[in-house]
Design a protein that fits this description.
The protein is mainly alpha-helical and about 70 residues long. The chain has helices at about 10-25, 55-74; strands at about 35, 40-45. The chain is built from 2 helices and 2 strands. Strands 1-2 form a two-stranded antiparallel sheet.
Amino acid sequence: MVNHSPFNDEITLAEQAELLGKQAMKLGLIPSFAVHHFPDSWQFYIPDFHNSEPLTPEEAYLTFKKKIDAVRTA
């Protein structure tokens, strides 16, 4: 079985989340986002008046993917 996942580890997952974030911005789904790079992790921030907590790369990836997929299937 071949794995067609766009990421293989935490770094590539974070990179994919960042790409999806840029795509979500281009589609007008989010106004902006920020990524804080630390030696051992990345934290994603999406402006939201209800939730100001940083997202992990996994949470950011899923959030961006959900928003983009919703537009594609609409």
